[in-house]
């Protein structure tokens, strides 16, 4: 049996997720047929479904990846980096994410996976806000948890605007969000 | 021909919209069959479709009504009233609104109706923010349009949380939003 390196497996997985994202953005969730997924990803259905047993699994992996990425943007680049990241997203892709996430709200597997990810990632995010509070950059009269939730609300609200093709002044958004969170001293 | 008063027509229309909202919330958009709509509204399909020729028209009217209502909440009760209104919404109903609005993003009639409503309502909302800037309550270093958009983002982000059943501290949200918008002097 030929041995396949972890690197190769990871690269394949990334190739599949990238292609699937493009395919969902171009055709919507329902319109992303297996034939279209094969073409956009550049792999056969056998190879794809070896990694993700269903289209739903593919979408769940992408949804988890989106959330992880935004958490990473905040922790590594601060709140502004995450806001600018959301503003620069492909509207079509955001539209699909919002539509399918709300449709899958009653799907047990989806909720279980996103909850598991939130349980894993939220403490890291809250710790980031707490560290900024300790160093005096962020206000301390509102809990770090609520600062994080407010940032998430603004980013999600911005994502809805981007998905809807609504004009938004990103600099103004960054400034208002900054002033909401900044230390009052 | 018996004459029907405008009052009667308006009351009927409100009855239909209320029942349809409950039906969509309980069964989702797809699950809201004509039989279920009849039962929840308490009128025959003939009577209902006299006002709204299709389920899509019913939904569009509800979506327009949601937006109009939030604009009214801001103009009459201020930003805080609108935030508290969103926090108190039925999660199931918000879930349906978010799902179907994103699905109808490519529906010409839907986009046309929401755009018409936005063209009509946005100036009133911007005027409200401008008046608060003139009286010195709201900051003037960010355009009234961008203040309004920021409020919309926070309310929509909050709606996504409510629809997802995510815990939110409404008082903290109100306070952070207030401080983002408040005059710096």
Regarding quaternary structure, what we see is homodimer
Biggest interface pair, residues each?
A: A-B, 35 and 35 residues
> In total, how many beta strands of chain A?
0
Along the chain, the helix and strand elements of chain A come as: HHHHHHHH
Which stretches of chain A of 5+ consecutive residues score pLDDT under 50?
A: none
* Total count of helical runs of at least 4 residues of chain A: 8
Backbone CA Rg of chain A: 19 Å
What best-fitting shape of chain A do the alpha-carbon axes yield?
Answer: globular
The chain-level mean pLDDT of chain A equals 92
Class by helix and strand content of chain A? mainly alpha
Helix content of chain A: over 70%
Distance between the termini of chain A: 65 Å
Describe the main β-sheet of chain A briefly.
none
Strand content of chain A: under 5%
